Amino acid sequence: MKVIDQSIRGDYRDLNEDVTGIFQNGTGQTLMLVSDGMGGHRYGDVASRFVHDEIGAAWKNENLLNVEDGVEFLRHLVMDVNRKMFDYQQENPEYQGMGTTLVLAAVIEETIIILNVGDSRAYAMNDRMIEQVTKDHSFVNMLVDAGEITEAEAKVHPKRNIITKAMGTDRLIQADVFRLRNRQYDYLLLASDGLTDDPEDSELHAIITRGGRTLEEKASQLVDQALKSGSTDNISLVLADLKVSEGD
Q: Helices 215-228 and 201-209 sit at what angle, rounded to 10 degrees?
C-alpha cells in the first residue's frame, strides 16, 4: 500500500483549518485521517490539530493483534479524544465553541476500518465503481433521508454547510464505524468537504482510476478539479493505492 496526502488553504480562506495525517504503529499498521476544523467557529485550526495530534500519538504507541481489537481501540479512542477536547474547552474558556470533523481509516490484516464524525468523507473504489462509505452528519443529509430534498438540491442548499455532529461540541460522541474487505478495492480516498462539495463522484472516480499517472499526480488533479469547480473551502485529502507497495 502507498499513501499520500495533500492539504491547501484554497482561494477563499485566510487560514487552512484542515489537517491530514498518516501514521504507523510499531507493527507497521497504517492509520490515515482528515480533520476539518469548523469554519466560522473560533479556533477551528486548533480543534483539527488537537484531534490529529492525539489520535496520531495514540496510534503510534499501540500494536493491535486483530481486527476486533482495532475496532474497539479506535471506537474508544475517538470517544476519549472528543471528551478530552470538550473538557479542555471547559478548562480554557477562550477555546469554547471549537470543533472539527474527523474521518479516519486503519488497515489491519485484510480489513479497512473506517470511522467518521461530521461531513468529511471516505470513498473506496476499484476500476468498475466508487462507493461513498461514510454518511454525512449534516443538516441537508437529514433532509435527503427524510425525502424532503434530493441529493442534487442538497448540493446547492443554503444550509449545506451545517453539520449535526462534530468532535468537541458535546462531551459524548460516538463515531459511525465501517469495515471493508481490502481486496475488493484498489483505492481509498479520505477528503474534507472542500474537495467533495462540487465534483460528482464519477469525476473523482475517473481521476483516480485513470492509468498512466502517479499517485501524487492523481492527488494534485483532484485538488485542481475542486478549485475549477469553485470550491470556497480548504481542500484536503488522503489517497491510498491499496495494491502497490511503498517502493513502487
A: 150
Q: What is the pTM of this model?
A: 0.95
Conformational region of residue 238, where left means phi above 0, alpha means psi within -120 to 50, and beta covers everything else: beta
Assess contact for 170 and 86: CB atoms under 8 A. Answer: yes
Q: How many helices (H) and strands (E) does the chain have?
A: 7, 10
**Closest to 80 (Cα-Cα) out of 178, 179, 174, 190:** 174
Q: Angle, nearest 10°, between helix axes 67-91 and 44-60?
A: 140
Per-residue pLDDT of the chain (248 residues; tens, 9 = 90+): 999 999 999 988 889 999 999 999 988 999 999 999 986 567 999 999 999 999 999 999 998 989 999 999 999 999 999 999 999 999 999 999 899 999 999 999 999 999 999 999 999 999 999 999 999 999 999 999 999 999 889 888 999 889 999 999 999 999 999 999 999 999 999 999 999 988 899 999 999 999 999 999 999 999 999 999 889 899 999 999 999 876 56
3-state secondary structure of 23: strand
